[in-house]
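User: Can you predict the 3D structure of DUF1189 domain-containing protein? Sequence below.
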Amino acid sequence: MNFWKSFIWSTYQFKRIGAFRLQKVHYVFAYMLYITGIQLIPYILADALGISVRFNQALPYIVSVSLVYLSSIMIYLLVSCAVAAIGLFLGKKQGKSLTYKHTWQIAIYALTLPTLLTAIVEAFVFSSSLLFLFYFTMALIYTLLSVSAIPNRNKNKHP
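Assistant: Sure. Here are the predicted structure tokens for DUF1189 domain-containing protein:
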């Protein structure tokens, strides 16, 4: 599936995010790398302007952007794992037939809108430590809505 379609659908269609759980893991991991790159565009632009004024070398800029990108991927993975664990617990309470892999994939796609909103807020409005609380809460709500859009498992296998 196209990354742009996945990106657009994961901002507003909970049922589609629930269906994304059936994709292969490498598509989901590539999507995570893609969304992390989009999140860092404001930082890269601001850093490029600051470094071009201070240095005439590209090496510090490349190293700085690489380190920020890798640390952002680590944070994204940690948040997605935490959201997936909570989503798995609440999904099992709702009677959903889910594994941790499914909820992790749902969490990756459910983090799209909170990631975009926090990147926009940090770039244009303000940056605060409470922004992470907003990010995590919104990601949990989005994941739970996506999990609840998945049909329940059948209790009776026989008609």
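Residues 45 and 51 are 10 Å apart (CA to CA). The helical segments are 3-9, 14-19, 25-39, 41-54, 59-93, 100-110, 112-124, 130-148.
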